Amino acid sequence: MRSPEKAAVAAEDTRERILQAAEAVLRRYGLAKTTVVDVARALDMSHANVYRHFESKAALLDALVERWLAAITEPLAAIAERDGPAALRLEEWFLTLIDFKRRNILGEPELFATYHAATEAARGVVEAHLARYHDHLVRILRDGVANGEWAVSDPDTAARIVRNAMRVYFDPHHVKADAGQRSDEEVREEARRSLRLVVAGLAAGAL
Amino acid sequence: MRSPEKAAVAAEDTRERILQAAEAVLRRYGLAKTTVVDVARALDMSHANVYRHFESKAALLDALVERWLAAITEPLAAIAERDGPAALRLEEWFLTLIDFKRRNILGEPELFATYHAATEAARGVVEAHLARYHDHLVRILRDGVANGEWAVSDPDTAARIVRNAMRVYFDPHHVKADAGQRSDEEVREEARRSLRLVVAGLAAGAL
DNA sequence: TAACTTACAAACATTGACATCTGTCACTCT
DNA sequence: AGAGTGACAGATGTCAATGTTTGTAAGTTA
């Protein structure tokens, strides 16, 4: 008889193996052609067992999306929380986001299609992360006000406006439409200028 | 025997009647269910005759799109070309664009679907108008520099950046995603603030 | 002779029979 | 007692036949 603890660890491990197999299968076959049966076959198990560990195919994809979102949300949180001039942090925050999104969208289109499909389906998984991004921006804006860099009366609205102003540079819709038109370096440079414009507006107390 | 002039006038008139019938049929049945035969039937003519006046179904839709684009491009051109403070004209230019787009996208979704489908297909028809919008913005920016409101080293890049910053408020993709979330007045107000931020940046010479 | 029609070919969309996939359940194995 | 299986129902996707639409050409009307 095994202890319940060991069993729980084994289950966690299987969950993880399924996620890794799912990621590999997705990368190989693409979202449309990936089935739960394929994922199970890659691990030499029955597809019914996958359903023991994930409520549904959607839940499995959501879990994958969750991991990818964490991979970007963590570095962004670090930038939002550290010390230093707010303008610099704001710039680094956006450039990190832009680089990450462009790498994912243009570099791993199949994986990204999954992320995007899940975004449409399970809004909840993604919205929690969007709320975090918003919090990051609010935090940087408040810091910028506190140390005298900027004057902002309503950081909440300001965060939304700044994010919207920069959106073309990281929103999948625009990134895909732009694909191949301009180099990463050109986009980065325009994004940097765009942000300088916004930051100058913040410094002038326009919000 | 009719004079060739009278025949030409009659042809122009038929073209116009076909366009109006096409618009009516589209509004009634939607883009997916509208056929050239339907349009012809609405005018009691054979569909072959429609092809005498328009090279293809795509050309017919393009002509419709051309008319809709002209309806917005003209008022925008007027704002870009008139006198007065550049900041005021820039604000009115964007608010006019935003109001028009939102009315069309949210108010006449069927017609807008046609516009959008034609946009994807016949990139050329639309790109000419996009180039005009860009020219409007460059003109307003130059005027703002000339009369000392702003300092802008490269109006071409600046126009692109300003347009991108305001894009969420008029781009069909974002307008549709936003549908019903916020009132026209709330969106207008946020757009106005966003533009003030940008204008303050221009005044500070950030570009 | 320009505006229009009828008749037809080729491209495209719809449908329905068939196959595959998702999700469940009673069961075995360790 | 929880990880895993095999067999099955219902949902979803595929594919070939059938119908509809686009686009053309030869002919008719005013």
Quick gist of this model?
Chain A has helices at 4-29, 36-42, 47-53, 57-81, 86-107, 109-121, 123-146, 155-166, 172-178, 184-203. Chain A is mainly alpha-helical and 207 residues long. At the A-B interface, helix 8 and helix 10 of A face helix 8 and helix 10 of B.
Q: Could you characterize what this model shows?
A:
The structure is a homodimer of 207-residue chains. The first copy, chain A, is mainly α. Chain A has helices at 4-29, 36-42, 47-53, 57-81, 86-107, 109-121, 123-146, 155-166, 172-178, 184-203. In chain A, helix 4 (57-81) packs parallel to helix 7 (123-146), helix 5 (86-107) runs antiparallel to helix 7 and helix 7 crosses helix 8 (155-166). Chain A starts with a helix and ends with a helix. The model of chain A has no long low-confidence stretch (mean pLDDT 90). At the A-B interface, helix 8 and helix 10 of A face helix 8 and helix 10 of B. Chain A binds a DNA duplex (30 and 30 nucleotides) through helix 1 and helix 3.
Task: Write the SSE topology.
The structure is a homodimer.
Chain A: H1 4-29, H2 36-42, H3 47-53, H4 57-81, H5 86-107, H6 109-121, H7 123-146, H8 155-166, H9 172-178, H10 184-203
Helix pairs in contact in A: 1-2, 2-3, 4-5, 4-6, 4-7, 5-6, 5-7, 5-10, 6-7, 7-8
The structure holds a DNA duplex (30 and 30 nucleotides).
